[in-house]
Amino acid sequence: MSRVLVLNCGSSSLKYRLFDVPAGHGWNAAGGVVARGAADSDPARDDEAPAAAEVEPVVVASGVVERIGESEPGAPQNHAEALAAAMAEISLDGLTAVGHRVVHGGLTFTAPALVDDAVLAAIADLVPLAPLHNPANLAGIQVARSLLPGVPQVAVFDTAFHRTLSPAASTYAIDAETAERYGIHRYGFHGTSHAIVSRRTAALLGRPVEEVNTITLHLGNGASACAVEGGRSVGTSMGLSPLEGLVMGTRSGDLDPAIIFHLHRVAGMPLSEIDELLNRRSGLVGLAGVNDMRVLLAKRATGDRAAALAFEVYCRRIRSYVGAYYADLGRLDAITFTAGVGENAPAVRAAALAGLDRLGIVVDPARNEAPERGARVISPPDAPVAVCVVPTDEEWEIATQTLGVVAA
Ligand SMILES: Nc1ncnc2c1ncn2[C@@H]1O[C@H](COP(=O)(O)OP(=O)(O)O)[C@@H](O)[C@H]1O
Ligand SMILES: CC(=O)OP(=O)(O)O
Ligand SMILES: [Mg+2]
User: Fold this and answer.
1) Which of 146, 209, 273, 284 suits 233 as a labelling partner, its CA being 20 to 30 A distant?
2) Considering the entire predicted model, what is its pTM?
3) Where is this site: Transition state stabilizer (predicted)?
């Protein structure tokens, strides 16, 4: 039995999970969650609340705390405090390792890495490529290192799964020398999620992952699509940074780069403001004033036109990527929805794939709307493409990858 603490430090949240992993575990095994908790920016969310049967025994679930830095007196003000509070609550006896989600691994990291000073420096070097994410990830590693001296720390990168992209898929069509000098490249993100979800999709269909072509749609606060050919990422919608691709809670996703020049020249916006606009005030929040899909759907149901348009833009973007990746893959076996929106919003799943029946892509309304939670198929039994919902488990994937490094 190994005990692994997994930390996912986001820009405004800290999530942790403690797993007991039996010897000889397989990636498809359910994680033995001993404890979990979150400090998050959104007090309304409850999707991290453990299902009672899943958590055995519950040592602690510290629950949801309001925004780090804006919370009630006594609540954690930063990652160091949040982590110290979490660690004070849980039993870390016999801890084998700590696994950290690190969003940007650049081209440096093609696999998870045992943290040492050189790895920390390399992660810090990548901050300019992921200014929203890597600083928080780094803070988490530094705090865990100082609180748990002697316990191996492993960095697991969102980008690593996408290092199988071909040059044609990862190259931006700009001046080659400039791109080379400044690391302009499609790195891709959410790799641990696309990896575990594509494998679990193959398992759900009862087929070896090597034989299955899947489009995985990770729709959370951040959102990305991935074309997975036989278990390998061959295309993904996020690029140099997690800003490209699908419409997200607060990020624009794809846009004409000339919009940036236009805002700078004509509106006189400094680049820092455009950066903030596209990363934090765009996407659903920019179009309809809310970043939470639950709230957006509720507003849309009351006839709110901005919410209706935001929903259409969001779903249309997904459909366009499905079409593009279907063309890239040539043969498509499955489309899988995952993460907060993908797992819980049947309206999004139905609208995103509407009108694709000529491509063999059909969502069965009753299956789609059934209040199930586990991995499931929501297309009709005889459909050429299996449309699936598969809960993601980035933390479990990080735990197993972490053990892989420590055991090696
Ligand atoms: N029942 C639900 N219906 C629609 N959307 C939901 C539901 N539950 C969660 N969500 C959406 O999922 C989003 C968070 O997804 P999640 O994968 O947990 O995000 P993160 O990227 O922070 O890990 C929330 O912003 C919310 O919009
Ligand atoms: C990379 C990324 O977008 O991560 P998140 O979905 O956690 O914001
Ligand atoms: Mg996420």
Assistant:
1) 284
2) 0.90
3) 190, 251
